[in-house]
């Protein structure tokens, strides 16, 4: 009898704790972040120049600098966690991370799952190809093989408006890559003839590639994309604090200096 009572009490305790966990997911996490003085940011550490690992293993990039500048204003340390980019919203929901911040594009599908900060940068989808392939527009990709990153905004654009590019390529299906580095290796080897990629990445990568001048960057008809920070919808205070910091960093010129450091020009968007 006592054993049965203990089992029932244990089950009630588990139920109560799981209920508390569900409630906590709906709470604003700003007070917790302030108390531990650390915010955890999920990122793909191969997205040059937004957030990537240098040869010495250290993290660098536009988003790395900007995130540190934002939370420095509040005396909070930034802990960058490398995640599977295709699982980013799940990681956020499960509270493994506090923010998604790594060239994260605002779109309607993501807006159903997360809240966004103000836009801080605009990006475009471009087509990178070997100059020998003579690809001057998306129409020249007819019957050719296209590469794109898995779970990227480029793939989202490709699927949302297939008539612009997807319907033209071989088998109407792109080759998917876990990261752009793998895609560029296949582009160099001729296994794909075009790579749909973020302009911020293409611009930086080709400028630092030894034989970067062998490639052509072609505009696409896809709409420009807004980069913002993703967070849980319950994090109203965290959202407000990030937006306030963006405004202050824009006014004092910090955002301009970070942009010029990584892009050679001021590409920031006024908050």
Automatic annotation (TrEMBL):
Q: Which organism is it from?
A: Lactobacillus selangorensis
**Which InterPro entries does the entry link to?**
Solute-binding_3/MltF_N (IPR001638)
Its organism's taxonomic lineage begins at:
Bacteria, Bacillati, Bacillota, Bacilli, Lactobacillales
UniProt protein name:
Glutamine ABC transporter, substrate binding protein
Look up keyword Signal and say if it applies. yes
Q: Where is each Solute-binding protein family 3/N-terminal domain found?
A: 38-266
Q: Which UniProt keywords apply?
A: Signal
Per the UniProt entry, the signal peptide is 1-21
Question: Could you confirm whether the keyword Zinc appears in this record?
Answer: no
């Amino acid at each position: 009898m006592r054993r049965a009572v203990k089992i029932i009490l244990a089950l009630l305790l588990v139920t109560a704790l799981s209920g508390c966990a569900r409630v906590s997911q709906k709470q604003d996490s700003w007070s917790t972040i302030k108390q531990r003085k650390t915010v955890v940011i999920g990122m793909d550490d191969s997205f040059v120049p937004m957030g990537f690992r240098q040869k010495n293993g250290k993290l660098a990039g536009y988003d790395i600098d900007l995130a540190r500048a934002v939370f420095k204003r509040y005396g909070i340390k930034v802990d960058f966690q490398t995640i599977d980019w295709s699982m980013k919203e799940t990681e956020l929901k499960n509270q493994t991370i506090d923010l998604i911040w790594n060239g994260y594009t605002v779109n309607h599908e993501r807006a159903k799952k997360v809240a966004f900060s103000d836009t801080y940068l605009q990006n475009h989808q471009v087509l990178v190809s070997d100059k020998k392939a003579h690809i001057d527009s998306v129409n020249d990709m007819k019957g050719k093989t296209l590469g794109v990153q898995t779970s990227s905004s480029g793939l989202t654009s490709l699927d949302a408006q297939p008539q612009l590019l997807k319907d033209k390529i071989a088998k109407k299906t792109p080759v998917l890559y876990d990261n752009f580095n793998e895609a560029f290796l296949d582009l160099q080897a001729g296994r794909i003839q075009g790579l749909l990629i973020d302009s911020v990445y293409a611009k930086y990568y080709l400028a630092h590639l030894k034989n970067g001048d062998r490639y052509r960057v072609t505009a696409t008809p896809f709409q420009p994309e807004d980069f913002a920070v993703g967070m849980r919808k319950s994090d109203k205070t965290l959202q407000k604090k990030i937006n306030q910091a963006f405004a202050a960093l824009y006014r004092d010129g910090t955002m301009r200096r970070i942009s010029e450091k990584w892009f050679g020009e001021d590409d920031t968007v006024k908050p």
